[in-house]
Amino acid sequence: MLSFFLQKKKTATQENFWIEDLKKQPRPKFHTLEIADIKRETDDCVSIAFKVPANLRDEYRYAAGQYVTLKAEIKGVEVRRSYSLCSSPLEDEIRVAVKRVEGGTFSSYANEQLQPGMKLDVMTPQGNFTVPFSPSKSRIYVMFAAGSGITPVMSLIKTILWHESRSRIVLFYGNRSVSSIIFREQIDDLKNEHLNRLEVHHILSREDQGTDWLKGRITADKVRLYAEKFFIPASVNHFFICGPEKMIFEVKDTLEQLGVEESKIHYELFTVSTAGQNAANDTIKSTKADVLSHVTVILDGEETHFDVSSKGVSILDAALDAGADVPFACKGAVCCTCRAKVLEGKVVMEMNYALEEDEVEQGYVLTCQSHPVTERVVISYDD
Ligand code: FES
């Protein structure tokens, strides 16, 4: 029997969370939402659905592949974490999946203590790990996911299957073992219901499935092999990759070597390695002249002024110190919550894994990564 989630709405309506135009998505904002449901997906992963009151529905409309930031006070300390939505905007639901990570403050709290009826601060959805979908399209999508990287991919898969009835998807999904496969039953149900449109290959690192190409991790060699056996790189409209940083860049580089245009490769990073952060810190220290800058930050039409040195803290941290309630989540260049536009002066970013090239060209920066290099800088979170 197909599980109940397949019976839900599959067309874009006012009642579900479908958004037509991402450009109309409001600037991210926290609201306190009640937990509607918690489902155990695997031994170390829960999914959490939220109740969205009618007056906030428009703010929580989202695109498949986007994420929300959750905020909670745990043992007296404010903790913020971003989690991808695993629900499709075509469902009447807004749901994230949280996999426990070793020593993870929020993920342990979510897996052990959260209950339906409790309340959490949930930021409105954001993110660029998506493309516009349309029933008129007939596309081929290839997706690579590992572990909890399946979360946004799950949202994308459901949306494509339900909204683009002529499109096909090939999914390569890496896990340790069968028992650690998040959404295993849901994926099987979708595959059974859309036999000719969804092809799934599970790659397991600790279980033998009888073939070398399904054993181990998703590596460059495997991507080359899969490109011979399961898809023609030039025929694929979009590739989506989500998982550990190493896997993402190995798959992305290999696809590019196989001739895939960069614009067709979409990836979502959850964190950046310490090595990457250190390299960025070293670069910024060695390349910046030390300028003391007078910075103006505009948020909700209000200005906050402060001075910060180009070798000091980021503009985001300086703005928070100055009392501005500026938005942030990861402070690690991956989530895009701290995005703002430079209206005057110049800043440099240490790292950027969140903004698209055209956004950077238009003057958008990640303020958690930005340092001023001119004596006056004006930055707006409202543009
Ligand atoms: S807070 Fe996440 S990119 Fe700046």
From TrEMBL:
<dbReference type="InterPro" id="IPR012675">
    <property type="entry name" value="Beta-grasp_dom_sf"/>
</dbReference>
<dbReference type="InterPro" id="IPR036010">
    <property type="entry name" value="2Fe-2S_ferredoxin-like_sf"/>
</dbReference>
<keyword id="KW-0408">Iron</keyword>
<dbReference type="GO" id="GO:0051537">
    <property type="term" value="F:2 iron, 2 sulfur cluster binding"/>
</dbReference>
<dbReference type="Pfam" id="PF00111">
    <property type="entry name" value="Fer2"/>
</dbReference>
<keyword id="KW-0479">Metal-binding</keyword>
<dbReference type="Pfam" id="PF00970">
    <property type="entry name" value="FAD_binding_6"/>
</dbReference>
<dbReference type="InterPro" id="IPR008333">
    <property type="entry name" value="Cbr1-like_FAD-bd_dom"/>
</dbReference>
<dbReference type="InterPro" id="IPR039261">
    <property type="entry name" value="FNR_nucleotide-bd"/>
</dbReference>
<dbReference type="InterPro" id="IPR001041">
    <property type="entry name" value="2Fe-2S_ferredoxin-type"/>
</dbReference>
<dbReference type="GO" id="GO:0046872">
    <property type="term" value="F:metal ion binding"/>
</dbReference>
<dbReference type="GO" id="GO:0010124">
    <property type="term" value="P:phenylacetate catabolic process"/>
</dbReference>
<dbReference type="InterPro" id="IPR017927">
    <property type="entry name" value="FAD-bd_FR_type"/>
</dbReference>
<feature type="domain" description="2Fe-2S ferredoxin-type">
    <location>
        <begin position="293"/>
        <end position="383"/>
    </location>
</feature>
<dbReference type="GO" id="GO:0016491">
    <property type="term" value="F:oxidoreductase activity"/>
</dbReference>
<keyword id="KW-0411">Iron-sulfur</keyword>
<protein>
    <submittedName>
        <fullName>Ring-1,2-phenylacetyl-CoA epoxidase subunit PaaE</fullName>
    </submittedName>
</protein>
<feature type="domain" description="FAD-binding FR-type">
    <location>
        <begin position="28"/>
        <end position="132"/>
    </location>
</feature>
<keyword id="KW-0560">Oxidoreductase</keyword>
<dbReference type="GO" id="GO:0050660">
    <property type="term" value="F:flavin adenine dinucleotide binding"/>
</dbReference>
<dbReference type="InterPro" id="IPR011884">
    <property type="entry name" value="PaaE"/>
</dbReference>
<keyword id="KW-0274">FAD</keyword>
<dbReference type="InterPro" id="IPR050415">
    <property type="entry name" value="MRET"/>
</dbReference>
<keyword id="KW-0001">2Fe-2S</keyword>
<keyword id="KW-0285">Flavoprotein</keyword>
<dbReference type="Pfam" id="PF00175">
    <property type="entry name" value="NAD_binding_1"/>
</dbReference>
<dbReference type="InterPro" id="IPR001709">
    <property type="entry name" value="Flavoprot_Pyr_Nucl_cyt_Rdtase"/>
</dbReference>
<dbReference type="InterPro" id="IPR001433">
    <property type="entry name" value="OxRdtase_FAD/NAD-bd"/>
</dbReference>
<dbReference type="InterPro" id="IPR017938">
    <property type="entry name" value="Riboflavin_synthase-like_b-brl"/>
</dbReference>
